[in-house]
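Predict the structure of Adenosylcobinamide kinase.
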Amino acid sequence: MGKVILVTGPARSGKSEWAETLAMESGKAVIYVATATDNPDDEEWHQRILEHQKRRPQDWVTLSVPVELSATLADAKPHTCLLVDSLGTWVANLLEQDDQSWENLVVEFLETVDLVAADMLFVAEEVGWGIVPAYPVGRMFRDRLGSLVRRLSSLCDAVYLITGGYALNLTVLGSPLPTSKDLIQN
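Done. Here is the predicted structure for Adenosylcobinamide kinase.
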């Protein structure tokens, strides 16, 4: 199994830049897995995507994967480093899934992550630190992303929180919470 790293934090905190730094330091061929799709009618979104593209080295391969993330990870070669940016966008792309379908996708994703021989870096937004969203779809997004990040972190070799201009390695500074599986076994 390859190394699995999660980079999380608030908007504009430098999550992607830190993940890009770690990808470069891997010494492996980097495949940038973009979960966002460009919308030329949304100038601000288009500019954000261009900002990310300009930072990437020319030799990185970019794949646009708005939905089929597990299949893309499963196809990765051991000598590569996949940088998935971002899980929040992936969750947003799949909000129309009912709860059972979403759970099936999450289980498939986590099982795939656990088996892939390539290094993988995941970028995820922290969305649960503010007010509770007023609309059901906002609450669903926040809850699904928060749960996904927590479940993924239990498979990670390192989890970084980016805030205030610093990358904090939570796997060094913190203690993992027990998973529901741990609680059932005890």
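The beta strands are 4-9, 29-34, 61-64, 80-85, 119-125, 158-163, 166-169.
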